[in-house]
Amino acid sequence: MKKSKGCREQRQLSIYVHIPFCLQKCHYCDFLSFRVSEDEKKQYLMKLQDEIVFFACKYKGEIVTTIFFGGGTPTILKEEELNDLLLTVKESFTVAEDAEITIEANPGTISRQKLKCLRSAGFNRISIGLQSAQDKELIELGRVHTYAEFMEGFRAAREAGFDNINIDLMSALPGQTMESYGETLTSVLALRPEHISAYSLIIEEGTLFWGRYGDTTLHTEGYPLLPSEDEERLMYQRTEDMLSKAGYERYEISNYARKGKECRHNSRYWQRKNYIGLGLGSSSCYDNVRWKNTDKMTLYLTGSPEQYQMEKTCLTREEQIEETLFLGLRLMEGVCLEEFLEKFGKNIHEMYPDVIDKYVSNGCLVIKDGRLKLSKLGIDVSNLVMSEFLF
Amino acid sequence: MAHIDKSKIRNFCIVAHIDHGKSTLADRIIEKTGLLTSREMQAQVLDNMELERERGITIKAQSVRTVYKAKDGEEYIFNLIDTPGHVDFNYEVSRSLAACDGAILVVDAAQGIEAQTLANVYLALDHNLDVFPVINKIDLPSAEPDRVKEEIEDVIGIEAHDAPLISAKNGLGIEDVLEAIVAKIPAPGGSDDNPLQALIFDSLYDSYKGVIIFCRIMEGTVKKGTKIKMMATGATADVVEAGYFGAGQFIPCEELSAGMVGYLTASIKNVKDTAVGDTVTDAERPCKEPLPGYRKVNSMVYCGMYPADGAKYPDLRDALEKLQLNDASLNYEPETSVALGFGFRCGFLGLLHLEIIQERLEREYNLDLVTTAPSVIYKVHKNNGDIIELTNPTNLPDPSEIEYMEEPIVSAEIMVTTEYIGSIMELCQERRGVYLGMEYMEATRATLRYELPLNEIIYDFFDALKSRSKGYASFDYSIKGYSRSDLVKLDILINREEVDALSFIVHKDTAYERGRKMCEKLKDEIPRQLFEIPIQAAIGSKVIARETVKAMRKDVLAKCYGGDITRKKKLLEKQKEGKKRMRQVGNVEIPQKAFMSVLKLDSD
User: Fold this and answer.
1) According to a count of CB atoms within 10 Å of the terminal CB, is the N or C end of chain A lower?
2) What is the pLDDT of residues B175-190, one digit of tens each?
3) Dihedral class, residue B470 (left if φ above 0, else alpha if ψ from -120 to 50, else beta)
4) Are A55 and A86 in contact (CB under 8 A)?
5) Residue range B193-206: mean pLDDT, rounded
């Protein structure tokens, strides 16, 4: 491992490693994850090792400042398997000493022993999927754990030495009320995690929930109802209220952190910094070229990178501008007007006079301290605002 | 070809109710007379426009000349003139008929006589055409040729016992039809030596040749170099080319003489100069008087057409200009709407004509249009004695200046099986119809006669008729005149701002109902926005209905898993795409289709 200090000139890189395995599919999940046989898992890990080594050669001169093991449920793997992967990354790439190395975890797959082992191998941030502190709601979501099991996992993580923990939460769940959601927030805040991701449930096509709730005209007989639109919006606002009172700053639309504990890896997505995705179905963005690995396991296992890397596109200037805005606005600090001008040779207002005027005047956008940002109202309807920046 | 024996010419057309197989029979006649081999045939040769083929209707009159070697050993020249088949184009039909000497009446062996069968056959008889019937679709299991023959004799009063029984689709019995054409349709009259007198039954604009006049020579001869004069419009020109109609092509010939059907070109730039029904004569040796029956065609239905993208206004203007080259009955003039910006008020023969133009603009010229609700021409009698012909509801003067208003009335004939008489009468009642009478054609079918306001039938009357009779009712109408009526202008206010493009004129008694439905419809059509939006219907300053569009729900993208932003971008793109079809009115965004929603108020 080389040192990063004094290498200011060096280009920074992030690495995402995808582990598409889960004990069981959650009812709302539309992400690439499934149950796996021991045999297939072995093959996958071997391929992943190859891929890491292969790409390390291509990005030799760059320094890796963040690594993220996401899923699926990465912690479904044995500690040795995870550590092997991380070790390969560290040996093949140049990883900064102070790199942020996150692993996603679900309660029930994180024993004390395992967490200790992961921590000592170099993982220094853990993101635990809780979603709700109400067991009833967890069952509805198809989660495999109880709140008590989560608590056990959280404590184990602290004991193992994780001093940077994220908890994933969700609002607008079936059967959820303002009261039950408030309780969830209170319980979680009592644990003082460094970071909280709070999402609103979205009913995605292809999920079990889609069949149950996707068609709003159908009667969802026997299942708890989704909160009304008004309730949903209230919950969303409640999140911000309670978390900011507790000292968490919202730094991204769905992310809250205690000072200095913002997730560096995810922020790089919004800032359009370079990142390489490894593993099945993972996405990459490098110097304005985006691509995505196949989500077909056989192709991934047997193909060459040219075969399994899909949709490779070099972003046009227009696309870069669009992305800069709709990704940048997700961050509460917004988009720096000066940087934009520097990069694209035109200032934002000149490029989008009507959009900026309209949304500043109706209170969705704010220009402050040389930056363009979403207002509180703007966050609530951010899709609308962001879509306006597409050409 | 210099001297054609007139006794060997047959000029005829085919009349039928829609879908009774007129175009298919025309195809078979062309095929069997050997002009085209089966392989060359594209289904329905005569319906040229893509749109015509799709809709299965004929919009422009077409014509074709074929040669038939009859059983008597002689060769006959057939000029088949295909006529438009819709009530909107009645005048065009009548001019095409006037160019013929006889007509084949096609009747569906299963359905029998329908409203348009009658309307068209009477039109043909009015033009003194010899009409002989043909029973089509005899291959259908439900065919009842004997019953239909009887019906033809009873209802129309023409002989039908020896009518050829055919299946145009399967090519059955076509020979019989060809022989009947020779035997039953008279040869044309006229003399080659008389002054030129030719009837224009259609025209077409070609960018190389200019206007191509479709005409029937009644008297005299015309050839290249003849200085011709259009008697009604007064336009003159020198003939560049004369010829006749091959299948889908123009075949030049030396001259056209009395009794012949063909075309002329004379470097004429505008179809307005060659109005359908006008008489072409020799400018130097004119005929005494024009042929009877010419009239100026007037638009009956008007609507506003606006480009969805305001920047496309010049494109829309160019497209309308081009369409008008071929369609003298299309009128347009620029207008401005507060809600929709710059556009055109366009006049049409009827709703079908409107739809066709709209579709052609969208398809052939790739324009995205916003169309306002169609309106008829109202006569507004002002206190000061002025009479305004109102085509755009927005221009209605202040009620205090109006003494009274008149609206156009049609006489309608609806043919329906007896079980649906009740529901059809109910429909006519709802549409302010005045019942005139009913005749039974046979035990199970009757013709209802009504007077109906035109503005009640231009929206969706035809659809309503079909749905309430399970498709069994047929309908035909003609304009009767104007009648005084208690009309009001209904305004729609969105977020307290009047949206001019949504105003319409309606009878006082139905205003409340319409206003309520309109508000409900708009509530469904207008998506939620940042703030709550009231939708109101008002007559003058009096609000008669109200709905509210609630403020927008939360709309946030969830997590971007593993930096996969393409999916999220697609979602935003979809949202953006939806917005493109919106119109900004005040600070409310209104989807384009909302402007057309008035059309579908009665769909439930």
Assistant:
1) C
2) 999 999 999 999 999 9
3) left
4) no
5) 89
B311–A contact, CB cutoff 8 A? no
Q: A20: closest CA among A50, A41, A49, A47? A: A41
B532 touches chain A (CB under 8 A): no
Strand partners of residue B333: B345
Task: Give the tens place of pLDDT for each residue, A333-344.
Answer: 999 999 999 999
What are the DSSP calls for B289-329, one per residue? SPPTT-------EEEEEEESSGGGHHHHHHHHHHHHHH-TT
Distance in angstroms (rounded) separating the CA atoms of residues A73 and A75: 5
Distance, CA of A339 to CA of A348 (rounded, Å): 10
Contacts of A384 in chain B (CB under 8 A): 552, 555, 575
- Parse chain A into domains and list their residue ranges: 2-270, 317-391
Looking at the structure, give the CATH architecture of the domain made up of residues A2-270: Alpha-Beta Barrel (3.20)
**CATH topology identical between A2-270 and A317-391:** no
Q: Are the beta carbons of B397 and B388 closer than 8 angstroms?
A: yes
Fold that domain A317-391 belongs to in CATH: Arc Repressor Mutant, subunit A (1.10.10)
- The nearest alpha carbon in chain B to A233 belongs to B554
Using CB atoms within 10 Å of the CB of residue B443, give its burial: 0 to 12 exposed, 13 to 18 middle, 19+ buried.
Answer: exposed
Q: Which long-range contacts (CB under 8 A, 24 or more apart) does B151-157 make?
A: B151/B112, B151/B113, B151/B441, B151/B442, B152/B105, B152/B107, B152/B113, B154/B441, B154/B442, B155/B113, B155/B118, B155/B441, B156/B105, B156/B113, B156/B118, B156/B121
Q: What is the pLDDT of residues A127-138, one digit of tens each?
A: 999 999 999 999
For residues B457-487, one letter each, b for 16 or more C-beta atoms within 10 angstroms of the residue's C-beta and e for the rest, the string is: bbbbbbebbeebbeebbbbbbeeeeeeebeb
Residue B370 is which amino acid? V
Identify any residues that bridge with B340 across adjacent strands, giving them in sequence order: none
Q: What's residue B102's pLDDT?
A: 94
Whether chain A has a CB inside 8 Å of the CB on B563: the answer is yes
Q: Can you tell me whether residue A226 is helix, strand or coil?
A: coil
Query: Which of the residues A265, A390, A391 would you substitute to probe the B interface, choosing the one with the greatest number of B C-beta atoms within 10 Å?
Result: A390
Q: How far apart are CA B23 and CA B85, in angstroms?
A: 10
Query: How would you class B524 by CB atoms within 10 Å of its CB: exposed for 0-12, middle for 13-18, buried for 19 or more?
Result: exposed
**SS3 state at A249:** strand
Q: Which residue has the higher pLDDT, B431 or B603?
A: B431
Task: Give the span between the Cα atoms of B590 and B498, in whole angstroms.
Answer: 13
| Chain B residues with CB-CB distance to A282 below 8 A | 562-563
**Does B170 reach chain A within 8 Å, measured CB to CB?**
no
Out of B556, B565, B576, whose CB is closest to A253? B556
